[in-house]
Design brief:
It contains four helices and 43 strands. By secondary structure, the chain is mainly beta. The chain has a 30-stranded parallel beta sheet that branches. Strands 15-18-22-25-27 form a five-stranded parallel beta sheet, with no helix packed on it.
Length: about 575
């Protein structure tokens, strides 16, 4: 695989900041204090401000009582009901507080379109089973629903129809640490980050929905300049939920970044559909400048841009693995599926399907070129088909085994196939996998079947089907499943069943502890969490501890974390020689 050139002066400061977050995230979770616990139960939906008693206690009064006990971690039980804030003051959580609702469908806290609902200025706050809606922040700071500067953990939280003239209509994570499990952000509005804005670290776990949010400027769904894993990989307390993923769909940006706007930060997505997002300018699916956006097992589809990069707009680094890019369009701009900038911008398409996209120029991919600082679009085992007016513009760097339905994806290597119809099915749900992930199946007789090389990795296709199913992996994001054959012979004697199985050996690179085919900040984070006791050894996503000892000192610890982080920001080579590590 070609090693991309990078622009150290533009990427390194932000990436070093992200690497530093590894330690703060892992070690920050260890903080705890030996405190007593207080409990309060809300008994009325009315928004009153008196003294909380066992027989008469509003949500505001319960929070005030908990705030009066800063040395104690308080729990507030919030029964089913709609709690409308008629007193125009935010519910400020100035102590460590847990609010337990009866479920987001039945427990609703309503800002009455007049006030931000919750503010956490510096503490550890947990909210579960609650809908936060109709909050309004007019201060210009942000967080119409929730503003977080401390540590916030939300489980079964719905942020609905909140607004701000600042950042983060639903949630503004303002240099804090946030975890959202089984979360929904919908119909929120902001100047930037209609659904959520992040300047700290926010992790999405389990299923999530970020749909129908709006920004007047950047980031209809998500605005980020720091760290956002949307990949079920960073729970506050391991293990993570057994499955994760979700939708970032139908979000609208008045400028750029309809689904996601990432400026100098790191965004990691897995099992995600970015569908039907729109922008007046660039990057309807996502917009990335000076940072990195990685997508594993995803679909970017039906997004519309006024200018460039209807699916993806990249002026940093982006790695797409097992991704379907389909039916994205820009009538006036460049790059229907992907637009890649000058200044050594780098995009990798690994086992992707790029089909049916359209643009004024470069319906599939558009790569900006100049004599001094061209971008790089690297592709391997990828299908380019039926994009208009051309599959590729500006050239690609081929690692081989790509299929081009025409002849514009050049220069080619020997294993590439031009003027070849890959025989793709329609964009639709093809089981197994999450129902929101639509893919394009390889039809019978497709030349993409058994035609990939240097695979695995990836170990599965976009839907989770094991690769390879035949003699080799299939090209593109879809792997045709081969039915297991079992022969049964029946006579007057007992039935005999014979099953033949095969074993595939996969080599994991030294340092690639999560097995995603790359050594980067995600591996550093997992190793740091293991080192401080927050991550079980050998349990996914820390699935390959045997390759964690990158400095060969017979341990898996912070020294290895540092080397992985240095590799990710380009300070050292990412080719390590591991001493095999065994879980204690």
């Amino acid at each position: 695989m070609v090693t991309p050139e990078t622009n150290p002066t533009s990427l390194r400061p932000r990436r070093l900041h992200l690497a530093a977050l590894v330690g703060s995230l892992a070690l920050g979770l260890l903080h705890g204090s030996d405190v007593r616990a207080a409990s309060f139960t809300v008994t009325k939906t009315a928004d009153t401000q008196a003294t909380c008693t066992p027989s008469s206690c509003s949500l505001r009064e319960a929070i005030a009582a908990a705030n009066a006990l800063p040395a104690e971690a308080s729990t507030i039980t919030l029964p089913a009901g709609t709690y409308v804030l008629t007193i125009a003051r935010t519910l400020t959580l100035s102590a460590d507080i847990t609010i337990n609702g009866a479920g987001s469908a039945t427990t609703i806290v309503d800002g009455n379109l007049s006030v931000r609902v919750f503010d956490n200025p510096a503490n550890s706050v947990q909210i579960g089973g609650v809908t936060v809606r109709n909050g309004k922040d007019g201060s210009g700071v942000g967080g119409g629903g929730i503003h977080n500067v401390g540590t916030f953990t939300g489980t079964d939280v719905v942020l609905d129809s909140n607004t701000t003239n600042g950042q983060g209509g639903g949630l503004f994570n303002d240099q804090g640490i946030a975890y959202l499990t089984q979360s929904v952000l919908r119909k929120n509005k902001a100047a930037t980050g209609g659904g959520v804005a992040n300047t700290g670290s926010i992790s999405f776990l389990g299923s999530f929905t970020i749909d129908g949010n709006t920004s007047t400027a950047e980031g209809g769904g998500v605005w980020n300049n720091s760290l956002v894993p949307l990949d079920n990989s960073n729970p506050p307390v391991p293990p993570a939920p057994p499955t994760g993923g979700g939708t970032i769909s139908s979000n609208v940006s008045g400028k750029s970044g309809g689904g996601i706007y990432n400026t100098g930060g790191f965004v990691s997505l897995m099992n995600v559909a970015l569908d039907g997002n729109s922008v007046s300018a660039d990057g309807a699916g996502y917009w990335n400048s000076g940072g990195e956006v990685d997508v594993l097992n995803g679909t970017i589809s039906r997004s519309v841009a006024g200018r460039n990069g209807a699916g993806c707009w990249n002026d940093g680094s982006t790695i797409l693995t097992n991704v379907t890019l389909a039916a994205n369009s820009t009538s006036a701009g460049q790059g229907g599926a992907l637009w890649n900038s000058l200044n050594f911008a780098y995009a990798l398409l690994d086992n992707c399907t790029v089909a049916g996209n359209s643009a004024h120029t470069g319906g599939g991919t558009f790569n900006s070129t100049s004599s001094a600082s061209s971008g790089t679009v690297e592709a391997q085992n990828t299908i380019f088909a039926s994009n208009t007016p051309a599959n590729c513009s500006g050239g690609i760097s081929s690692d081989g085994n790509n299929i081009d339905s025409a002849s514009s994806c050049t220069p080619r290597v020997t294993s590439d196939r031009a003027n070849t119809n890959p025989l793709l099915g329609a964009l639709q749900y093809n089981p197994p996998g999450p129902t929101f992930l639509q893919t394009q199946a390889l039809l019978s007789g497709s030349p993409a079947i058994n035609a990939a090389a240097n695979c695995p990795p990836p170990d599965t296709d976009e839907r989770g089907v094991t690769r390879p199913q035949g003699a080799a992996c299939d090209v593109g994001a879809f792997e045709v499943a081969v039915a297991t054959s079992t022969t049964t012979t029946t006579t007057t004697r007992p039935t005999t069943t014979t099953t033949t199985s095969s074993t595939t050996t996969t080599t994991i690179a030294c340092g690639d502890v999560n097995g995603d085919g790359a050594v980067n900040i995600a591996d550093a984070l997992l190793t740091a969490q293991y080192d401080v006791g927050l991550r079980p050894c050998g349990q996914a996503p820390f699935a390959h501890p045997e390759v964690c000892d990158v400095n060969s000192d017979a341990a898996c610890n912070i020294g290895d974390v540092l080397r992985m982080a240095q590799c990710d920001v380009g300070l050292v080579s990412c080719v390590f020689s591991c001493r095999p590590f065994t879980c204690p």
